[in-house]
Amino acid sequence: MAKIYRDNDVDMKVLNGRKIGVIGYGNQGRAQALNIRDSGFSPMIGNGDDRYRDLAVRDGFEVHAISRVAAESDVILLLIPDEVQPEVYDEQIRPHLNPGDILCFASGYNVYYKTIRPPAGVGVIMVAPRMIGESVRNLYRDGLGFPCLVASENDDDGRFMPIALAIAGAVGATRFGAFESSFREETTIDLFAEQMLWPGIIKLCLLYFEKLIENGCDPQIVTTELYLSGEFVEIARAMITHGFFGQLKLHSQTSQFGQLSSADKMAPPELLTRVDEVVDEICSGKFHRKWAKEQKDGKPNMKKLWQEALNHPLAEAEAELENLRKIVARSYGGSD
Ligand code: NAI
To answer: Where are the beta strands (DSSP E) in the chain?
Structure first.
C-alpha cells in the first residue's frame, strides 16, 4: 500500500530560512509559484526573455536569469519542459549547485533515464502533480487539492523527503494526498498512459467514427455522440461519484450487458502482446532513445503524425460543428 501524506503529516517549518526558486513560468511553473506564494513563502522566478517572463513580472514576482536563481536558491523547482531540461541544467544550473541544495522535479523522466545526474550531496526530490497546471491553481484557490507523487532519490538519511512533502504542502497537493512513489514509478505510469491507454482510446474512438460512417450514419451526429454531448465527461465524473464499476448501474440493463460481456473480447492476444511491448520499450529505455533521436532530427515523424491526425474525417465533422462546440465548451468552463 502506498503511503499517503496529508496536510497534518507535513512540517512546513522545514522550509523556513530556505530560499525557493521556481525555474519556468509555464503550465506548472505559474500555478505552483502562485500557490507557494499564497502559502506564505516568497519564491523567486528564473526565466529566459520570453512572454512567460512578462507574465511572471505582471503577477508581481521577482524574476531573474535562470543561472542567478540557481545560484541563490536552496530549493530549486525545475518547471520547464522535460525535453529542454538536460541542456538548461548542464549550462545554467549545474555550475551553481552546492552540497545541501535541493533540486525538485515535477516528473521522473530525466532522473530515471539519467539525462540529468545531480552531483553527490545535492538533494533530488520529486513533487509530481497528477493535474494540469491550470487546475493546480484553480483547485488551490477553491480551497481544494489534487493528488501528487512524491519521491526522494539517494536519500539514505531521509533528510530530503520532508522537504518534498513541504513543497507538496505549499503547492496544495497534501490537501488531497501526496503518494510516496519513485522517479521510476512516476515515469512508467506516465509513459504507459501516454503510449497504451490514451492511444487505445483515441484509436477506438476513430474506429467507432469510421465504422458508423461506413454504415450510413451522419458524421455530425456520430461526433456529437462520441464526445461533444459531454456524456464522456459525465461518465468519467460518475466513476468518481459512484465507482469505476458502480457507474455502470446508471446505464440501461442492455448497456450494462453489452459493456460487461464485450470488454474481454476487445483485448485479443495481439493487443496483450502489444501492451507487453509498450512496457518493455518504456522500461528498457528504447522509447526514450527513439524520442531523443526524433527531437535531434527536428521531429519529422511528429509533424507527419499531426498532419495525418488533422486530415482525419473526424476533424472535418468537428469543424462543421464549431459553433455547437463553442457553446458546449463554455458550459464546461473552457475558453473558446
Ligand atoms: P511548459 O511548456 O508550460 O514550460 C514553459 C516554461 O518553460 C516557460 O517558462 C519557458 O520560458 C520555459 N522554457 C521553455 N523552453 C525553454 C528553454 N529552452 N530554456 C529555458 N526555458 C525554457 O512546461 P510544463 O508543462 O509546465 O512542464 C514543466 C514540468 O512539469 C515538466 O517536468 C512536466 O513533465 C511537468 N508536469 C507538467 C504537467 C502539465 O500539466 N503540463 C503535469 C504534471 C507535471
So the answer is: 4-5, 20-23, 44-46, 63-64, 75-78, 102-105, 123-129, 147-153, 177-180
